[in-house]
TrEMBL record:
Signal peptide: none annotated. HAMAP family: TrmD. PANTHER family: TRNA (GUANINE-N(1)-)-METHYLTRANSFERASE (PTHR46417:SF1). Homodimer. Its EC number is 2.1.1.228. One of its GO terms (molecular function) is tRNA (guanine(37)-N1)-methyltransferase activity. It is an enzyme of class 2 (transferase). It is found in: Cytoplasm. Specifically methylates guanosine-37 in various tRNAs. This is tRNA (guanine-N(1)-)-methyltransferase. InterPro entries: Alpha/beta_knot_MTases, tRNA_m1G_MeTrfase_C_sf, tRNA_m1G_MeTrfase_TrmD, tRNA_m1G_MTases_N, tRNA_MeTrfase_TRMD/TRM10. It comes from Candidatus Pseudothioglobus singularis PS1. S-adenosyl-L-methionine binds at G112, I132, G133, D134, Y135, V136, I137. It catalyses: guanosine(37) in tRNA + S-adenosyl-L-methionine = N(1)-methylguanosine(37) in tRNA + S-adenosyl-L-homocysteine + H(+).
Amino acid sequence: MRFDIITLFPEMFSAIKEEGVIARAIKKSIISINEWQLRDFSENKYKNVDDKAYGGGAGMVMQVKPIRDCIKKIKEQEPETKVIYLSPQGDPLNQNLVEKLSSFESLTLLCGRYEGVDERIIKNDVDLEVSIGDYVISGGELAAMVLIDSVSRRLPNVLGNKDSLNDSFVNNLLDYPHYTRPESIDGDIVPEVLLSGNQAKIDAWRLEQAKHKTRQKRPDLLSN
Ligand SMILES: NC(=O)c1ccc(NCc2ccccc2)nc1
């Protein structure tokens, strides 16, 4: 799977490219990440890609032309890529959407800054607007990294058995509780069932715990 990133801060992506699961997935050629510096598509010698907003207001808006030219360039290499715009106005990134996105061969992630991009980009060039949560951060880059991490983990052979495939949300339930040595610390002991060696009983207990936790903390997940 190939990720193309349109951004003003390409160097931010070294955070996921140099360490951990994503770095290994890149080494194993399961994924590739290509950053595109939007300023390289600027029309002026100052490398600006934003301008004042029509209708006034303090914020700057990212212009159509540099973004459209950059997408065009990416599509010369990846004609089938899906253009995803990370924004607070997007569809919530949940496990279902992560699964869907993991089926694409190529995703182009458009990272907004300032007040975001000119609406005509969203209307004509973006295939899907995605939000990682109901809050605003200073740019789409961190949201893009969250998307890359969550989607890449779902690709075959990305997770070795040692990286636990976090069961949260995969079956629409929160994860069961986890314990490790020592068996008792500060008078706090590990649930007996986990020491029983009876795997069927342990699995049943874990499923019950996941359901209980979900009912308590996220009943909304149960209505999916
Ligand atoms: N919740 C999110 O996924 C998210 C994505 C981007 C972002 N900041 C950049 C931006 C600001 C305004 C309009 C479009 C993009 N903040 C939060």
